[in-house]
Amino acid sequence: MNRWPEIRARSFDGSIDRPVALENLLSRKEQEQLRSIATVLEFNRGKTPIFSDGEEARFVYLVDEGVIRISRCAESGQRQILAFSVPGDLMGLPDGGRYVNSAETVSAARIYRLPWQRMQQMMLADPQFQLNLLMKVVHDFRQAQMRIMTLGQQNIYQRLASFILDFLGIPEFYDEKRSLLKLPVNRFDLADYLGTAPESAARAFARLESQGLVRRLTSRTIEILDIDGLQLLRRGPRRGHSAETHDRIPPSLQEHNA
Amino acid sequence: MNRWPEIRARSFDGSIDRPVALENLLSRKEQEQLRSIATVLEFNRGKTPIFSDGEEARFVYLVDEGVIRISRCAESGQRQILAFSVPGDLMGLPDGGRYVNSAETVSAARIYRLPWQRMQQMMLADPQFQLNLLMKVVHDFRQAQMRIMTLGQQNIYQRLASFILDFLGIPEFYDEKRSLLKLPVNRFDLADYLGTAPESAARAFARLESQGLVRRLTSRTIEILDIDGLQLLRRGPRRGHSAETHDRIPPSLQEHNA
DNA sequence: CGCCGACTTGACACCAATCAAGATAAGTGG
DNA sequence: CCACTTATCTTGATTGGTGTCAAGTCGGCG
Predict the structure, then answer these.
(1) Are residues A141 and A169 in the same domain?
(2) Is residue A159 domain-shared with residue A227, that is, in the same domain?
(3) What is the three-class DSSP state of B54?
(4) Which of A89, B6, B68, B184 has the fewest CB atoms within 10 Å around its CB?
(5) Residues B18 and B142 in one domain
Protein backbone atom coordinates (compact mmCIF):
# COMPACT_ATOMS: atom_id res chain seq x y z
CA MET A 1 0.00 0.00 0.00
CA ASN A 2 2.91 2.38 -0.31
CA ARG A 3 2.43 2.71 -4.00
CA TRP A 4 1.93 6.34 -4.99
CA PRO A 5 -0.38 6.68 -7.95
CA GLU A 6 0.49 8.59 -11.06
CA ILE A 7 -0.65 12.14 -11.14
CA ARG A 8 -3.37 12.83 -13.61
CA ALA A 9 -2.26 14.89 -16.54
CA ARG A 10 -4.66 17.71 -16.00
CA SER A 11 -7.04 19.29 -13.59
CA PHE A 12 -10.71 18.74 -13.92
CA ASP A 13 -11.86 22.17 -14.76
CA GLY A 14 -9.37 22.93 -17.48
CA SER A 15 -10.83 23.66 -20.84
CA ILE A 16 -9.79 21.96 -24.01
CA ASP A 17 -8.55 25.14 -25.59
CA ARG A 18 -6.35 26.04 -22.68
CA PRO A 19 -4.87 22.76 -21.66
CA VAL A 20 -3.94 22.68 -18.04
CA ALA A 21 -0.47 21.38 -17.64
CA LEU A 22 0.72 19.06 -14.98
CA GLU A 23 2.29 21.76 -12.90
CA ASN A 24 -1.14 23.00 -11.96
CA LEU A 25 -1.79 19.92 -9.97
CA LEU A 26 0.49 19.21 -7.12
CA SER A 27 3.58 17.46 -8.38
CA ARG A 28 4.54 14.00 -7.28
CA LYS A 29 7.30 15.48 -5.18
CA GLU A 30 4.96 17.89 -3.48
CA GLN A 31 2.42 15.21 -2.85
CA GLU A 32 5.07 13.03 -1.29
CA GLN A 33 6.13 15.89 0.88
CA LEU A 34 2.56 16.25 2.02
CA ARG A 35 2.05 12.55 2.52
CA SER A 36 4.66 12.54 5.23
CA ILE A 37 2.28 14.31 7.55
CA ALA A 38 -0.91 12.81 6.19
CA THR A 39 -3.54 10.44 7.42
CA VAL A 40 -5.13 8.31 4.77
CA LEU A 41 -8.91 8.31 4.56
CA GLU A 42 -10.63 5.65 2.51
CA PHE A 43 -14.21 5.99 1.40
CA ASN A 44 -16.04 3.07 -0.11
CA ARG A 45 -19.00 4.93 -1.48
CA GLY A 46 -20.33 8.24 -2.62
CA LYS A 47 -22.26 10.87 -0.70
CA THR A 48 -20.03 10.59 2.35
CA PRO A 49 -19.27 13.95 3.96
CA ILE A 50 -15.61 14.90 4.40
CA PHE A 51 -15.99 18.33 5.92
CA SER A 52 -18.80 20.82 6.22
CA ASP A 53 -19.35 24.53 5.94
CA GLY A 54 -18.80 26.24 9.27
CA GLU A 55 -16.79 23.54 10.99
CA GLU A 56 -13.55 24.47 12.61
CA ALA A 57 -10.91 23.82 9.99
CA ARG A 58 -8.05 21.82 11.44
CA PHE A 59 -7.20 19.88 8.31
CA VAL A 60 -6.80 20.38 4.64
CA TYR A 61 -7.27 17.50 2.25
CA LEU A 62 -5.52 16.18 -0.80
CA VAL A 63 -7.45 14.00 -3.21
CA ASP A 64 -5.64 10.86 -4.21
CA GLU A 65 -8.35 8.86 -5.92
CA GLY A 66 -11.97 9.49 -6.81
CA VAL A 67 -14.11 12.56 -7.27
CA ILE A 68 -15.23 14.96 -4.56
CA ARG A 69 -17.90 17.60 -4.86
CA ILE A 70 -17.25 20.97 -3.27
CA SER A 71 -20.48 22.75 -2.51
CA ARG A 72 -22.07 25.50 -0.53
CA CYS A 73 -25.67 26.18 0.34
CA ALA A 74 -27.10 29.61 -0.22
CA GLU A 75 -29.26 31.22 2.40
CA SER A 76 -32.23 30.21 0.30
CA GLY A 77 -31.25 26.60 0.90
CA GLN A 78 -30.28 26.12 -2.70
CA ARG A 79 -27.13 24.10 -3.10
CA GLN A 80 -24.43 25.18 -5.52
CA ILE A 81 -21.64 22.83 -6.47
CA LEU A 82 -18.58 25.00 -6.81
CA ALA A 83 -16.24 22.40 -8.23
CA PHE A 84 -15.48 18.74 -8.56
CA SER A 85 -12.13 17.83 -7.11
CA VAL A 86 -10.06 15.14 -8.76
CA PRO A 87 -6.78 13.50 -7.76
CA GLY A 88 -4.05 16.06 -7.18
CA ASP A 89 -6.48 18.72 -6.02
CA LEU A 90 -6.25 20.38 -2.66
CA MET A 91 -9.35 21.29 -0.72
CA GLY A 92 -10.50 22.55 2.62
CA LEU A 93 -8.34 25.65 2.93
CA PRO A 94 -9.71 27.52 5.90
CA ASP A 95 -11.05 31.05 5.92
CA GLY A 96 -11.03 32.62 9.32
CA GLY A 97 -10.27 29.25 10.90
CA ARG A 98 -13.35 27.59 9.45
CA TYR A 99 -14.38 25.75 6.35
CA VAL A 100 -16.55 27.81 4.07
CA ASN A 101 -17.52 24.96 1.77
CA SER A 102 -18.68 21.42 2.22
CA ALA A 103 -17.13 18.40 0.59
CA GLU A 104 -18.66 14.98 -0.05
CA THR A 105 -17.46 12.03 -2.00
CA VAL A 106 -19.14 11.46 -5.33
CA SER A 107 -17.69 8.00 -5.75
CA ALA A 108 -15.34 5.82 -3.76
CA ALA A 109 -12.28 7.85 -2.91
CA ARG A 110 -8.96 7.92 -1.12
CA ILE A 111 -7.98 11.17 0.49
CA TYR A 112 -5.02 12.41 2.49
CA ARG A 113 -5.84 14.45 5.52
CA LEU A 114 -3.23 17.03 6.47
CA PRO A 115 -3.11 18.95 9.76
CA TRP A 116 -3.27 22.59 8.81
CA GLN A 117 -0.96 23.63 11.60
CA ARG A 118 1.77 21.32 10.39
CA MET A 119 1.09 22.40 6.82
CA GLN A 120 1.80 25.95 7.82
CA GLN A 121 4.98 24.93 9.59
CA MET A 122 6.10 23.10 6.49
CA MET A 123 5.35 26.06 4.33
CA LEU A 124 7.32 28.38 6.56
CA ALA A 125 10.22 25.96 6.64
CA ASP A 126 10.27 25.40 2.91
CA PRO A 127 9.41 28.56 1.00
CA GLN A 128 9.78 26.94 -2.38
CA PHE A 129 7.22 24.35 -1.41
CA GLN A 130 4.97 27.12 -0.21
CA LEU A 131 5.38 28.96 -3.48
CA ASN A 132 4.28 25.86 -5.34
CA LEU A 133 1.20 25.66 -3.17
CA LEU A 134 0.54 29.33 -3.81
CA MET A 135 0.63 28.72 -7.53
CA LYS A 136 -1.77 25.86 -7.06
CA VAL A 137 -4.20 28.14 -5.27
CA VAL A 138 -3.77 30.75 -7.98
CA HIS A 139 -4.64 28.10 -10.49
CA ASP A 140 -7.78 27.12 -8.59
CA PHE A 141 -8.62 30.80 -8.52
CA ARG A 142 -8.39 30.85 -12.31
CA GLN A 143 -10.69 27.89 -12.54
CA ALA A 144 -13.22 29.72 -10.40
CA GLN A 145 -12.96 32.70 -12.71
CA MET A 146 -13.61 30.50 -15.68
CA ARG A 147 -16.76 29.31 -13.99
CA ILE A 148 -17.80 32.94 -13.51
CA MET A 149 -17.43 33.38 -17.26
CA THR A 150 -19.51 30.29 -17.94
CA LEU A 151 -22.27 31.11 -15.50
CA GLY A 152 -22.36 34.77 -16.42
CA GLN A 153 -22.48 34.39 -20.16
CA GLN A 154 -23.60 30.99 -21.31
CA ASN A 155 -27.02 29.43 -21.58
CA ILE A 156 -27.74 25.97 -20.25
CA TYR A 157 -26.82 24.16 -23.44
CA GLN A 158 -23.50 25.91 -23.60
CA ARG A 159 -22.81 25.22 -19.96
CA LEU A 160 -23.47 21.55 -20.51
CA ALA A 161 -21.19 21.58 -23.55
CA SER A 162 -18.49 23.20 -21.42
CA PHE A 163 -18.97 20.59 -18.75
CA ILE A 164 -18.69 17.76 -21.24
CA LEU A 165 -15.65 19.25 -22.92
CA ASP A 166 -13.94 19.64 -19.57
CA PHE A 167 -14.28 15.93 -19.03
CA LEU A 168 -12.98 14.84 -22.40
CA GLY A 169 -9.45 15.56 -21.28
CA ILE A 170 -9.61 13.15 -18.36
CA PRO A 171 -8.88 9.59 -19.44
CA GLU A 172 -10.45 8.28 -16.27
CA PHE A 173 -13.83 9.40 -17.60
CA TYR A 174 -13.40 9.55 -21.34
CA ASP A 175 -12.63 6.52 -23.43
CA GLU A 176 -11.25 8.28 -26.45
CA LYS A 177 -11.11 5.22 -28.65
CA ARG A 178 -14.78 4.50 -28.26
CA SER A 179 -15.82 8.10 -27.72
CA LEU A 180 -17.55 7.10 -24.54
CA LEU A 181 -17.85 9.50 -21.65
CA LYS A 182 -18.75 8.15 -18.24
CA LEU A 183 -20.26 10.88 -16.13
CA PRO A 184 -19.36 10.61 -12.46
CA VAL A 185 -22.40 12.55 -11.30
CA ASN A 186 -26.15 12.25 -11.44
CA ARG A 187 -28.53 14.85 -12.84
CA PHE A 188 -29.04 16.51 -9.50
CA ASP A 189 -25.38 17.14 -8.93
CA LEU A 190 -24.99 18.18 -12.52
CA ALA A 191 -27.83 20.66 -12.21
CA ASP A 192 -26.41 22.14 -9.03
CA TYR A 193 -23.07 22.46 -10.74
CA LEU A 194 -24.48 24.14 -13.84
CA GLY A 195 -26.72 26.39 -11.80
CA THR A 196 -29.99 25.05 -13.16
CA ALA A 197 -32.71 22.50 -12.47
CA PRO A 198 -32.38 18.75 -13.09
CA GLU A 199 -35.14 18.97 -15.68
CA SER A 200 -33.23 21.60 -17.57
CA ALA A 201 -30.12 19.47 -17.46
CA ALA A 202 -32.04 16.56 -18.94
CA ARG A 203 -33.50 18.82 -21.60
CA ALA A 204 -30.04 20.11 -22.43
CA PHE A 205 -28.87 16.55 -23.04
CA ALA A 206 -31.92 15.97 -25.17
CA ARG A 207 -31.14 18.97 -27.31
CA LEU A 208 -27.47 18.13 -27.71
CA GLU A 209 -28.62 14.70 -28.80
CA SER A 210 -31.18 16.08 -31.24
CA GLN A 211 -28.41 18.13 -32.79
CA GLY A 212 -26.22 15.10 -33.21
CA LEU A 213 -23.52 16.23 -30.83
CA VAL A 214 -23.85 13.40 -28.34
CA ARG A 215 -25.92 10.31 -27.79
CA ARG A 216 -27.21 9.07 -24.47
CA LEU A 217 -26.58 5.40 -23.92
CA THR A 218 -27.59 5.50 -20.29
CA SER A 219 -28.15 8.55 -18.17
CA ARG A 220 -24.53 8.38 -17.05
CA THR A 221 -22.89 7.16 -20.23
CA ILE A 222 -22.64 9.50 -23.18
CA GLU A 223 -21.29 8.80 -26.63
CA ILE A 224 -19.51 11.85 -28.00
CA LEU A 225 -20.36 12.31 -31.66
CA ASP A 226 -19.11 15.76 -32.57
CA ILE A 227 -16.44 17.46 -30.50
CA ASP A 228 -16.10 20.31 -32.96
CA GLY A 229 -19.80 20.90 -32.74
CA LEU A 230 -19.63 21.00 -28.96
CA GLN A 231 -16.84 23.54 -29.13
CA LEU A 232 -18.76 25.62 -31.64
CA LEU A 233 -21.74 25.58 -29.35
CA ARG A 234 -19.63 26.65 -26.41
CA ARG A 235 -17.98 29.47 -28.30
CA GLY A 236 -21.16 30.79 -29.83
CA PRO A 237 -23.38 33.60 -28.61
CA ARG A 238 -25.76 33.00 -25.76
CA ARG A 239 -28.77 33.57 -27.95
CA GLY A 240 -27.52 31.55 -30.91
CA HIS A 241 -29.68 29.97 -33.56
CA SER A 242 -30.95 26.81 -32.15
CA ALA A 243 -32.67 25.17 -35.05
CA GLU A 244 -29.98 23.11 -36.75
CA THR A 245 -26.59 23.61 -35.22
CA HIS A 246 -24.69 23.25 -38.35
CA ASP A 247 -26.24 21.58 -41.28
CA ARG A 248 -25.27 18.09 -40.54
CA ILE A 249 -27.56 15.63 -38.94
CA PRO A 250 -26.07 12.22 -38.38
CA PRO A 251 -27.69 9.48 -40.39
CA SER A 252 -28.98 7.84 -37.27
CA LEU A 253 -31.25 10.69 -36.51
CA GLN A 254 -33.20 11.66 -39.55
CA GLU A 255 -36.53 12.58 -38.26
CA HIS A 256 -39.08 12.66 -41.00
CA ASN A 257 -39.98 15.61 -38.95
CA ALA A 258 -43.15 17.35 -38.12
CA MET B 1 4.08 62.16 -0.32
CA ASN B 2 5.31 59.38 1.85
CA ARG B 3 2.00 59.22 3.62
CA TRP B 4 0.55 55.75 3.47
CA PRO B 5 -3.21 55.87 3.35
CA GLU B 6 -5.40 54.01 5.76
CA ILE B 7 -6.43 50.60 4.71
CA ARG B 8 -10.08 50.26 3.91
CA ALA B 9 -11.96 48.24 6.42
CA ARG B 10 -13.19 45.63 4.01
CA SER B 11 -12.76 44.24 0.60
CA PHE B 12 -15.15 45.12 -2.13
CA ASP B 13 -16.79 41.81 -2.67
CA GLY B 14 -17.51 40.99 0.91
CA SER B 15 -21.12 40.52 1.72
CA ILE B 16 -22.91 42.22 4.51
CA ASP B 17 -23.69 39.02 6.27
CA ARG B 18 -20.14 37.80 6.29
CA PRO B 19 -18.15 40.88 7.01
CA VAL B 20 -14.70 40.78 5.59
CA ALA B 21 -12.18 41.76 8.16
CA LEU B 22 -9.12 43.80 7.61
CA GLU B 23 -6.76 40.87 7.48
CA ASN B 24 -8.18 39.87 4.15
CA LEU B 25 -6.73 42.92 2.57
CA LEU B 26 -3.02 43.32 2.70
CA SER B 27 -2.05 44.76 6.02
CA ARG B 28 -0.34 48.08 6.29
CA LYS B 29 2.90 46.31 7.12
CA GLU B 30 2.66 44.05 4.12
CA GLN B 31 1.84 46.92 1.86
CA GLU B 32 4.86 48.81 3.12
CA GLN B 33 6.99 45.79 2.51
CA LEU B 34 5.74 45.71 -1.03
CA ARG B 35 6.10 49.40 -1.55
CA SER B 36 9.85 49.09 -1.10
CA ILE B 37 10.12 47.45 -4.51
CA ALA B 38 7.24 49.29 -6.14
CA THR B 39 6.85 51.86 -8.85
CA VAL B 40 3.97 54.23 -8.39
CA LEU B 41 1.54 54.58 -11.27
CA GLU B 42 -0.89 57.46 -11.24
CA PHE B 43 -3.98 57.49 -13.43
CA ASN B 44 -6.01 60.63 -13.82
CA ARG B 45 -9.03 59.11 -15.46
CA GLY B 46 -11.02 55.96 -16.00
CA LYS B 47 -10.86 53.49 -18.85
CA THR B 48 -7.08 53.43 -18.90
CA PRO B 49 -5.63 49.97 -19.44
CA ILE B 50 -3.19 48.66 -16.86
CA PHE B 51 -2.50 45.24 -18.26
CA SER B 52 -4.16 43.00 -20.79
CA ASP B 53 -5.04 39.37 -21.24
CA GLY B 54 -2.22 37.49 -22.94
CA GLU B 55 0.58 39.92 -22.24
CA GLU B 56 3.76 38.63 -20.70
CA ALA B 57 3.33 39.13 -16.99
CA ARG B 58 6.37 40.80 -15.50
CA PHE B 59 4.55 42.77 -12.82
CA VAL B 60 1.83 42.38 -10.30
CA TYR B 61 -0.11 45.36 -9.07
CA LEU B 62 -1.36 46.62 -5.77
CA VAL B 63 -4.24 49.07 -5.73
CA ASP B 64 -3.70 52.06 -3.50
CA GLU B 65 -6.51 54.37 -4.51
CA GLY B 66 -9.44 54.12 -6.88
CA VAL B 67 -11.37 51.29 -8.49
CA ILE B 68 -10.09 48.91 -11.14
CA ARG B 69 -12.16 46.54 -13.21
CA ILE B 70 -10.79 43.05 -13.82
CA SER B 71 -12.27 41.55 -16.95
CA ARG B 72 -11.90 38.87 -19.53
CA CYS B 73 -13.40 38.48 -22.97
CA ALA B 74 -15.02 35.21 -23.93
CA GLU B 75 -14.35 33.68 -27.30
CA SER B 76 -17.69 35.04 -28.36
CA GLY B 77 -16.32 38.52 -27.78
CA GLN B 78 -18.56 39.05 -24.79
CA ARG B 79 -16.82 40.80 -21.95
CA GLN B 80 -17.23 39.62 -18.39
CA ILE B 81 -16.12 41.74 -15.48
CA LEU B 82 -14.75 39.32 -12.93
CA ALA B 83 -14.25 41.75 -10.09
CA PHE B 84 -13.74 45.32 -9.11
CA SER B 85 -10.49 45.86 -7.27
CA VAL B 86 -10.35 48.40 -4.50
CA PRO B 87 -7.44 49.68 -2.39
CA GLY B 88 -5.53 46.88 -0.74
CA ASP B 89 -6.30 44.41 -3.51
CA LEU B 90 -3.64 42.61 -5.45
CA MET B 91 -4.05 41.90 -9.14
CA GLY B 92 -2.19 40.63 -12.14
CA LEU B 93 -0.91 37.34 -10.78
CA PRO B 94 0.45 35.49 -13.78
CA ASP B 95 -0.63 32.11 -15.02
CA GLY B 96 1.95 30.41 -17.14
CA GLY B 97 3.93 33.63 -17.32
CA ARG B 98 1.10 35.64 -18.80
CA TYR B 99 -1.84 37.67 -17.65
CA VAL B 100 -5.14 35.91 -18.07
CA ASN B 101 -7.29 38.91 -17.30
CA SER B 102 -7.32 42.53 -18.32
CA ALA B 103 -7.42 45.46 -15.94
CA GLU B 104 -8.55 49.01 -16.60
CA THR B 105 -9.14 51.92 -14.32
CA VAL B 106 -12.75 52.78 -13.59
CA SER B 107 -11.91 56.08 -12.00
CA ALA B 108 -8.74 57.96 -11.22
CA ALA B 109 -6.39 55.62 -9.41
CA ARG B 110 -2.99 55.18 -7.86
CA ILE B 111 -1.39 51.80 -8.22
CA TYR B 112 1.85 50.21 -7.14
CA ARG B 113 3.62 48.14 -9.77
CA LEU B 114 5.71 45.29 -8.41
CA PRO B 115 8.23 43.26 -10.41
CA TRP B 116 7.08 39.68 -10.16
CA GLN B 117 10.62 38.35 -10.07
CA ARG B 118 11.47 40.40 -7.05
CA MET B 119 8.18 39.52 -5.46
CA GLN B 120 9.08 35.87 -5.73
CA GLN B 121 12.49 36.54 -4.21
CA MET B 122 10.86 38.37 -1.36
CA MET B 123 8.43 35.56 -0.80
CA LEU B 124 11.20 32.98 -0.70
CA ALA B 125 13.21 35.14 1.65
CA ASP B 126 10.32 35.83 3.99
CA PRO B 127 8.01 32.84 4.32
CA GLN B 128 5.69 34.59 6.75
CA PHE B 129 5.13 37.33 4.23
CA GLN B 130 4.49 34.74 1.59
CA LEU B 131 2.00 33.00 3.82
CA ASN B 132 0.13 36.26 4.23
CA LEU B 133 0.00 36.66 0.49
CA LEU B 134 -1.23 33.10 0.18
CA MET B 135 -4.07 33.85 2.55
CA LYS B 136 -4.88 36.92 0.51
CA VAL B 137 -5.14 34.80 -2.63
CA VAL B 138 -7.25 32.28 -0.78
CA HIS B 139 -9.54 35.11 0.19
CA ASP B 140 -9.85 36.29 -3.40
CA PHE B 141 -10.62 32.71 -4.29
CA ARG B 142 -13.51 32.80 -1.81
CA GLN B 143 -14.79 35.97 -3.36
CA ALA B 144 -14.79 34.29 -6.75
CA GLN B 145 -16.73 31.40 -5.27
CA MET B 146 -19.29 33.80 -3.89
CA ARG B 147 -19.73 35.18 -7.37
CA ILE B 148 -20.28 31.65 -8.63
CA MET B 149 -23.09 31.35 -6.10
CA THR B 150 -24.60 34.62 -7.20
CA LEU B 151 -24.40 33.94 -10.91
CA GLY B 152 -25.48 30.35 -10.60
CA GLN B 153 -28.51 30.89 -8.40
CA GLN B 154 -29.80 34.43 -8.44
CA ASN B 155 -31.92 36.31 -10.92
CA ILE B 156 -30.99 39.74 -12.15
CA TYR B 157 -32.83 41.58 -9.40
CA GLN B 158 -31.12 39.56 -6.73
CA ARG B 159 -27.74 40.05 -8.36
CA LEU B 160 -28.28 43.77 -8.39
CA ALA B 161 -29.32 43.68 -4.75
CA SER B 162 -26.15 41.74 -3.94
CA PHE B 163 -24.10 44.27 -5.83
CA ILE B 164 -25.67 47.17 -3.98
CA LEU B 165 -25.32 45.48 -0.60
CA ASP B 166 -21.66 44.79 -1.28
CA PHE B 167 -21.11 48.51 -1.70
CA LEU B 168 -22.94 49.61 1.40
CA GLY B 169 -20.00 48.55 3.50
CA ILE B 170 -17.57 50.83 1.73
CA PRO B 171 -17.70 54.36 3.11
CA GLU B 172 -16.00 55.66 0.03
CA PHE B 173 -19.15 54.91 -1.91
CA TYR B 174 -21.90 54.89 0.66
CA ASP B 175 -22.85 57.92 2.69
CA GLU B 176 -24.57 56.15 5.51
CA LYS B 177 -25.97 59.29 7.10
CA ARG B 178 -27.81 60.32 3.98
CA SER B 179 -28.32 56.78 2.65
CA LEU B 180 -26.74 57.81 -0.60
CA LEU B 181 -24.81 55.32 -2.70
CA LYS B 182 -22.54 56.62 -5.42
CA LEU B 183 -21.97 53.93 -8.01
CA PRO B 184 -18.49 53.94 -9.45
CA VAL B 185 -19.52 52.22 -12.67
CA ASN B 186 -21.85 52.87 -15.57
CA ARG B 187 -24.60 50.56 -16.74
CA PHE B 188 -22.38 48.81 -19.25
CA ASP B 189 -19.80 47.84 -16.70
CA LEU B 190 -22.53 46.92 -14.28
CA ALA B 191 -24.20 44.69 -16.84
CA ASP B 192 -20.95 42.96 -17.70
CA TYR B 193 -20.35 42.42 -14.01
CA LEU B 194 -23.80 41.00 -13.35
CA GLY B 195 -23.70 38.87 -16.48
CA THR B 196 -26.63 40.56 -18.18
CA ALA B 197 -27.48 43.31 -20.66
CA PRO B 198 -27.45 47.03 -19.84
CA GLU B 199 -31.17 47.17 -20.50
CA SER B 200 -31.79 44.47 -17.95
CA ALA B 201 -29.64 46.27 -15.44
CA ALA B 202 -31.74 49.40 -15.94
CA ARG B 203 -34.91 47.38 -15.58
CA ALA B 204 -33.61 45.85 -12.39
CA PHE B 205 -33.10 49.31 -10.94
CA ALA B 206 -36.59 50.24 -12.04
CA ARG B 207 -38.07 47.27 -10.28
CA LEU B 208 -36.13 47.82 -7.07
CA GLU B 209 -37.40 51.37 -7.20
CA SER B 210 -41.00 50.32 -7.82
CA GLN B 211 -40.74 48.11 -4.76
CA GLY B 212 -39.52 50.96 -2.64
CA LEU B 213 -36.10 49.50 -1.96
CA VAL B 214 -34.08 52.23 -3.61
CA ARG B 215 -34.63 55.48 -5.46
CA ARG B 216 -32.62 56.68 -8.41
CA LEU B 217 -31.49 60.26 -8.06
CA THR B 218 -29.22 60.10 -11.05
CA SER B 219 -28.13 57.02 -12.93
CA ARG B 220 -25.06 56.82 -10.73
CA THR B 221 -26.49 58.03 -7.44
CA ILE B 222 -28.90 55.81 -5.58
CA GLU B 223 -30.77 56.49 -2.40
CA ILE B 224 -31.07 53.38 -0.29
CA LEU B 225 -34.53 53.14 1.23
CA ASP B 226 -34.78 49.62 2.64
CA ILE B 227 -31.68 47.64 3.42
CA ASP B 228 -33.65 44.85 5.04
CA GLY B 229 -35.77 44.57 1.93
CA LEU B 230 -32.66 44.33 -0.21
CA GLN B 231 -31.31 41.56 1.98
CA LEU B 232 -34.61 39.73 1.87
CA LEU B 233 -34.61 39.98 -1.88
CA ARG B 234 -31.09 38.60 -2.06
CA ARG B 235 -31.86 35.73 0.25
CA GLY B 236 -35.08 34.73 -1.43
CA PRO B 237 -35.71 32.10 -4.08
CA ARG B 238 -34.84 32.83 -7.68
CA ARG B 239 -38.42 32.69 -8.79
CA GLY B 240 -39.89 34.55 -5.83
CA HIS B 241 -42.99 36.70 -5.81
CA SER B 242 -42.11 40.11 -6.99
CA ALA B 243 -45.32 42.01 -6.56
CA GLU B 244 -45.34 43.38 -3.02
CA THR B 245 -42.09 43.10 -1.23
CA HIS B 246 -43.30 44.00 2.15
CA ASP B 247 -45.53 41.30 3.40
CA ARG B 248 -42.28 39.92 4.49
CA ILE B 249 -41.54 37.00 6.64
CA PRO B 250 -38.91 37.73 9.25
CA PRO B 251 -35.49 36.53 8.24
CA SER B 252 -35.77 33.71 10.68
CA LEU B 253 -36.31 31.40 7.79
CA GLN B 254 -36.48 28.39 9.96
CA GLU B 255 -36.53 25.25 7.92
CA HIS B 256 -39.86 24.21 9.31
CA ASN B 257 -40.56 22.80 5.96
CA ALA B 258 -42.80 20.04 4.81
C1' DC C 1 -29.11 75.32 -29.24
C1' DG C 2 -27.97 70.99 -31.13
C1' DC C 3 -25.44 66.90 -30.95
C1' DC C 4 -24.17 62.66 -28.82
C1' DG C 5 -23.63 59.19 -25.63
C1' DA C 6 -25.66 57.15 -21.65
C1' DC C 7 -29.75 55.72 -19.82
C1' DT C 8 -34.57 54.15 -19.79
C1' DT C 9 -38.69 52.01 -21.30
C1' DG C 10 -41.65 49.17 -24.43
C1' DA C 11 -42.52 45.15 -27.35
C1' DC C 12 -41.64 40.70 -28.48
C1' DA C 13 -39.59 36.29 -28.82
C1' DC C 14 -36.96 32.89 -26.75
C1' DC C 15 -35.10 30.74 -22.53
C1' DA C 16 -35.65 28.29 -18.47
C1' DA C 17 -38.06 27.29 -13.69
C1' DT C 18 -41.78 24.99 -11.99
C1' DC C 19 -45.47 21.74 -11.65
C1' DA C 20 -47.07 17.48 -13.20
C1' DA C 21 -46.90 13.03 -15.23
C1' DG C 22 -44.92 9.26 -17.23
C1' DA C 23 -40.79 6.12 -18.17
C1' DT C 24 -36.79 3.81 -16.85
C1' DA C 25 -33.55 1.94 -13.68
C1' DA C 26 -32.32 0.34 -9.06
C1' DG C 27 -33.25 -1.74 -4.90
C1' DT C 28 -35.96 -4.73 -1.70
C1' DG C 29 -38.58 -8.35 0.08
C1' DG C 30 -41.26 -12.34 -0.97
C1' DC D 1 -36.77 -14.89 -10.11
C1' DC D 2 -40.54 -11.96 -9.83
C1' DA D 3 -43.50 -8.31 -7.85
C1' DC D 4 -43.21 -4.26 -5.63
C1' DT D 5 -41.41 0.06 -4.04
C1' DT D 6 -38.43 3.78 -4.81
C1' DA D 7 -35.21 6.88 -6.86
C1' DT D 8 -33.75 8.79 -10.93
C1' DC D 9 -34.48 10.41 -15.30
C1' DT D 10 -37.18 12.26 -19.12
C1' DT D 11 -40.80 14.80 -21.35
C1' DG D 12 -44.89 17.98 -21.59
C1' DA D 13 -47.36 22.22 -20.36
C1' DT D 14 -47.35 26.56 -18.44
C1' DT D 15 -45.64 30.86 -16.77
C1' DG D 16 -42.33 34.08 -15.54
C1' DG D 17 -37.64 35.82 -16.67
C1' DT D 18 -34.53 38.00 -19.80
C1' DG D 19 -32.00 39.00 -24.30
C1' DT D 20 -32.71 41.69 -28.23
C1' DC D 21 -34.39 45.28 -31.19
C1' DA D 22 -36.30 49.73 -31.31
C1' DA D 23 -37.71 54.06 -29.74
C1' DG D 24 -37.65 57.61 -26.68
C1' DT D 25 -35.61 60.54 -22.70
C1' DC D 26 -32.12 62.72 -20.16
C1' DG D 27 -27.76 65.12 -19.39
C1' DG D 28 -23.31 66.93 -20.71
C1' DC D 29 -20.61 69.48 -23.82
C1' DG D 30 -19.32 72.05 -27.78
Answers:
(1) no
(2) yes
(3) coil
(4) B6
(5) yes
pLDDT (tens digit, 9 = 90+) per residue, A117-141?
Answer: 999 999 999 999 999 899 999 999 9
Is residue A95 a part of any domain in this protein?
yes
Q: What percent of chain B has pLDDT over 90?
A: 71
Lowest mean pLDDT among A177-181, A238-242, B104-108, B231-235: A238-242
Report if residue A2 sits inside a domain: no
Q: Do B131 and A120 touch (CB under 8 A)?
A: yes
B182 touches strand C (CB under 7 A): no
What value does the mean pLDDT take over residues B124-133? 92
Show the domain range for B249: 155-257
Give A24's pLDDT tier (boundaries 50, 70, 90).
low
CATH number reported for the structural domain that contains residue A184 in this entry: 1.10.10.10
| CB proximity A153 to B under 8 Å | yes
Q: Say yes or no: A11 and A106 in one domain.
A: yes
Name the strand (E) or helix (H) holding B137. helix B127-153
Residue at shortest CA–C1' distance from D16: B239
Partner-chain contact B152 A80, CB within 8 Å: yes
pLDDT on residue A44:
86
Could you tell me if A248 and A132 lie in one domain? no
Quick check: A99 CB within 7 A of strand C?
A: no
